[in-house]
Specification:
The protein has 14 helices and 16 strands. Strand 12 and strand 13 form a beta hairpin. It has a 5-stranded mixed sheet with strand order 14-13-12-9-16, sandwiched between helices.
Length: 330
């Protein structure tokens, strides 16, 4: 039996929809437009005239230009569910993480009972556990850093990318290791192996992804004395010294991994010089390496450290520095 489609028309008189669009970053759903007094034919007329554009199924923008990142966030929530929460790379971008893999999608959590499929630039993740610590704003909600890190890392297959995300969360004080471990346990075991490994590495003393690469160069061997990672140091006279990435107490050598980003501003460069001079003033040798060297020139880095150690030991070099505490030892 065939039937003719029924054109949906609202019973209310038409009203000005400009305020509706204005309150939602230039976006409105079909349901909202029908409630406001428009009908399907009126919506199609706006689309044909080039005044509106279809952003997602049942969701329209009152312009035809490019959709901004903020509009995409609002659109993802309007499309997915009133209870949706931005998560993963989407949320970490909002939290202003600096080192993230490229991801053009908007990732949202929705309650498990919501039957909404992923469409266009929106990736819908159904969950039995929405984030109770999400930040709620007028137009959308954003997951906490810990939840966003866990969700983002579960979607990544590159260990270095996972390390970078976890290290930034911890190093910037946005999510301590304990909170991430707690979130990991709540997440279960599905696609969490890389996140678990990255958390173990960070908890062992590495403060960034390049430091992990750097530490893995120095497996225990006969040619190198003990290396202590990220120790708290002080001079014999009680002066508190900076914490280097690595410290070889037997040879009095500090190892530092210095990123280009860190030195692009005068303050970062001056801070490095002060650190270097403090170590030198107490008899230490400081060896600087870049993240690129730590990743791609491992033999060169190790050989440089081995030669420096041999020379310092042969010369009988001494320092006036001792270790106060040491989270990681080779």
């Amino acid at each position: 039996m065939s039937y003719a489609p029924v054109l949906v028309r609202a019973s209310r008189p038409k009203v000005d929809t400009s305020r509706l669009f204005e309150e939602q970053r230039g976006l409105a759903t079909r349901r909202q437009l029908l409630t406001a007094g428009l009908d399907d034919e009126a919506i199609r007329a706006q689309l044909r005239a080039g005044r509106w554009q279809r952003v997602l199924p049942g969701l329209y923008a009152n312009n035809t230009g490019a959709i901004t990142v903020e509009q995409r966030r609002v659109a993802a929530t309007l499309y997915a569910s009133p209870d949706a929460q931005l998560t993963g790379i989407t949320a970490l971008t909002w939290h202003e993480f600096r080192h993230l893999p490229t991801d053009p999608l908007m990732h949202v959590l929705v309650p498990h009972q919501v039957r909404r499929a992923s469409r266009g630039f929106v990736r819908v993740h159904r969950t039995h556990r929405l984030d109770p610590y999400a930040r709620h704003f007028e137009r959308y909600a954003v997951c906490s850093v810990a939840r966003a890190v866990a969700d983002a890392c579960r979607g990544l297959s590159d260990l270095r990318a996972v390390r970078a995300v976890v290290a930034e969360a911890v190093q910037r004080g946005l999510a301590p290791v304990g909170l991430l471990e707690q979130e990991l346990e709540l997440a279960g075991t599905h696609r969490t192996a890389l996140l678990r490994r990255a958390l173990r590495e960070i908890a062992a003393g590495a403060r960034s992804a390049p430091e992990v690469d750097f530490q893995q160069i120095f497996t225990p061997g006969d040619r190198l004395p003990q290396i202590i990672w990220n120790p708290q140091l002080e001079a014999f006279d009680g002066t508190v010294l900076p914490s280097p990435d690595g410290w070889i107490p037997e040879a009095g050598i500090a190892l530092e991994v210095d990123s280009r980003e860190y030195h692009l501003n005068p303050e970062g460069w001056e801070r490095t010089m002060r650190r270097h001079n403090l170590f030198a003033a107490h008899g230490a040798l400081v060896l600087h390496f870049t993240p690129s060297e730590a990743r791609y020139r491992k033999r060169h880095v190790r050989a440089t450290v081995e030669r420096a150690c041999a020379k310092r030991l042969a010369d009988g070099a001494t320092t006036a520095i001792r270790v106060r505490s040491a989270p990681g030892v080779q």
